[in-house]
Amino acid sequence: MGRGGSLISLASGIRPYAVFLTGDDVVSLSGLRKLISQRALNQAAVVFANGKFLGDLSRTFAPRARIHPICLGVDPAKFVPLPAASSPVVIICTRGFAPIYNNSYLIRALALLPNSLPDFRVVFPSAGDLLSETQELADKILSPELRRRVRFLNGVTDEDLLRNLQSAHIYTSVSRSDGTSISLLEALSCGLFPVLSDIPANREWIDRKVGNGMLVPLDKPEEYARQLKEAILAPAHRAAVSPFNRRLILERADSRETMARVASLLGNTIRSRNCS
């Protein structure tokens, strides 16, 4: 990992070592921790960065590091689209209940949706430290009718998570920062329509010309509600772009191919060290 793990590798004396950067928090370091982290990355034999945005950002942080942007991806043979019932429209957010994932923002946006919308449901499969707080917010600001449409599952098995994804129509995540999100890749592989926070890592997966998803600003619940409403009211468009979202995974984030690339790069690194 880009913080603790790489520092341990640097201090261990084991060479060569590799680093995998998962999120953009590495560039928020300062002072002594920043200097040590830069040294750890610069001395790594190879650094994998979770997506193009994080790779570009990390190069400004550790310019001498051997950085390879790569998405570890998901297994598209597992995360496959299945026909979902046309009603109710199911919105799913699979992010955990932690401050960075900002799940309460979805609750605040839901409170602003009009009563005239077609039937819909919202599902939160995950658990986390802020789950109870978010449930209390939902109890407080959602109307009784709307509150009945929101389900908190408090953690599910992998099989149940897959079933929930395959039963959904819209995926939403409004994290405040991110690398390439595995949760997003799973949803795209299942053909879901994403409504995402407008942050650099998410922009890599939304093609504005195709309209395969929506990007919403942070801390503007009225705009978030507007875009959720638009997505709910557009079943034909969601269905039309579903194959495009699935194809993104097959072309850019198939874990079978990306892990083979990681293995090849690691093998080349070890061979070059042994020959030197």
Number of domains: 2
What would the CATH topology of the largest domain be?
Rossmann fold
CATH architectural designation of the largest domain: 3-Layer(aba) Sandwich
The counted number of beta strands is 9
- Under CATH at level 1, the class of the largest domain stands as Alpha Beta
Task: Identify the CATH homologous superfamily of the largest domain.
Answer: Glycogen Phosphorylase B
Low-confidence spans:
none
The gyration radius over C-alpha positions equals: 20 Å
Side-by-side strand order of the widest sheet: 6-5-4-7-8-9
Largest sheet: 6 strands, parallel
Helices and strands, in order, run as HEHEHEEHEHHEHEHEHEHHH
Total number of helices:
12
Helix and strand content put the structural class at alpha/beta
Strand composition percent: 5-15%
Helix content: 40-55%
Overall geometry comes to globular
Instruction: Measure the end-to-end span.
Output: 27 Å
Mean pLDDT: 90
